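Posting for a labmate who doesn't have an account.
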Amino acid sequence: MKEKASGVLQGVPNELIDQARAAMSSGVPGAAGSLGSQLPPWMPDAPVMVACAAVVSGLVAWLFGGRLIKAAFLVIGGVVSAALGAAYFPVLTDSVGGIPAAYVGMGLGFIVGVIAAALLFRFAMAILAAGVLGSAAVLVAIVTLSHVPGAIPPTESIGMVDGRAVIIADGSGETARRLVRERFDSWAGAAKTAASRSVMGTPPPSSPITGGGPGDRAPPSLEGPGSQDEPDDAVGAAAEAAEEAARAIYGLIAGRWQALPDRSRWIVAGSWVAGAMAGFALGIILPRKAAAAVSSLAGAGMILAGGVWLADRYTGLGAWLAGVGALGYLGAWMVLSALGLIFQSRSRRGAAPAGSASRRP
């Protein structure tokens, strides 16, 4: 394993390794900036990567999700079961016919997992469809209620006091939405620091990765006291920031729910129940059509979310996008989802053998 790790870094300029050692051991800003300038320009901008991944993944799900869901479910079931078999089968025996028990458990686990996933696909599709259609129904209900006077209080009236969401009548104080954004930005920065220190942290002096030895240690001025603990500290800071972001998001959701009048709560809850029941029934009765519907809804949502974010950042359409309003985005989502469902249905009928489409659920 050490030889493999050493081979991976062959050809890496020594000065780049030295800069990584200097930056990660002592946190010298100049060395860190020099190293960061040599990294690919897309690496530091995680939000852009996430938005682009959302658009690409959404496009794939929007066009082909109905076909891919079952295959992905079978593969995931097989891989998970294979991992469990490789971990626990050696407890029963050391080998089977001269074959190590881990390999036997992996093979048997994969077969069992694929079979189990195939048998449970209909039920899993029902659960997934219930979640997606229930969430869609809640979104429709909230957008509809937002156009009814007094049905939903303004977002600015929900603030945070001692970590809890409360209603602030005059709109003063720190709003929950801004707090969520700040907590998320804090987590993103801490996670980026932890990742960079984990990937480019200083290896022990005897590590073959840098070919180090007793005489190859970095100067004491670069190592600094406690430099070996910096990656752990960075990971801890990232975990703490993630926990704060999760609490802020939960506070925002809980605060909005508590701010709703009783009638609005009943409408939202009833919409979720109705959507979930419809999705569950669709998944049980017509799992393939449910897969197409779920993938069309999810894909259209990812395309819109990522596309709008990228357009707002890199074009001058920010003001226009903000003026579209929730009802406009809801309509665009529904239209785009319907187009995806139509495309998947037609492509499936065209690919199916003659006479088989009517027999397949």
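Reply:
Got it, the structure tokens are right above this. Residues 1-13, 23-39, 169-173, 202-228 have pLDDT under 50 and may be disordered.
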